[in-house]
Amino acid sequence: MSKFADAANTSHTLSLAAMEEASRLGQRTADIDHLLLALVLSEQTAGQVLRSFGIDLAGARDAVAAQHAEHLAAVGVHAPAPEPGGIVFHETDGYTWSDRALALIGRASGGDRRGDATAVLRELVAEPSGMIEATLVRLGTSPAAVTARLDEVERTSPHRPQRPIRPGELSGSSEAFIPAAPDAVWAVLADPARMPGWEPSIGSVSNAPAAIRVGDTWAAHARTERPDGKPIRVKPAFIDQVVELAVASDPHLIEWRFSYPDAPRANARRLRIQLEPAAGGTQLRIALAWERHPDRARRPLLGLLMRPVVRVVLWLQLSQLGSGISRVFR
């Protein structure tokens, strides 16, 4: 990826995760502590480095809460902390970054900094308030140790760009970290009835098999209403889908093909997810491809003009899929 693409992707994924974490506590402003939690969840090198110290999401949440309580007690405030709830970010609005978090993310993209999660983590462990340093100490490490390990990893692990999974097709790939063991993640992905819980475009399924086998099919129905009750516009021909299980290798690889029975000339969609064990959870490699219907005429010039838009759409779809699976376990 280019520096711009790295920065844009990192800003989007960290913002989403940080604001989801803020929403658990009824907060609308994501600050540096939420940014730390987002980095613990990051699929990039920064997240892998933090997790290599044994830092997981539950421990990081506890350390942040304890550090906040200590800070308040030091100024004579002993009010109980708000009880965390579920993630409601997608059901509410009005979220923003704090000024210091926004400035920190901006510095991570300045000069020769790449703007990726590693650059953000370097800025975060060096921030001057002492909040992150104290939280890392609670977690058994320090800013110096984190920085040293980042240096070590970056010397031996060159940047690896993401590439289309099927050259010549509308396709893309991404990675995501899930804070759960591969068997637990597989149990969710392999259950057709749970697909609406992580696939953002699907509102319900029907005729789902109890135990899946390659070649099984079932019906999926588009989400037509947002959590706040506002309608989602979906063309009638694209409300119903047929989902076919194309590949299933427990618990390492699963792939589905989505087609539209009421729009037989529409492009079909393939979604492929590879699961790999990782420190503190599971690393996902998510690939998405749109299959052009053979009867549809090719328009090379239009395709060339639309390529940047298609890339953005694919990136958003992949990001939403990774985030949706992560939310199931948070």
UniProtKB/TrEMBL annotation:
Pfam families: Polyketide_cyc2 (PF10604). SUPFAM superfamilies: Bet v1-like. CDD domains: SRPBCC_CalC_Aha1-like. Residues 151-170 are annotated as: Disordered. This is SRPBCC family protein.
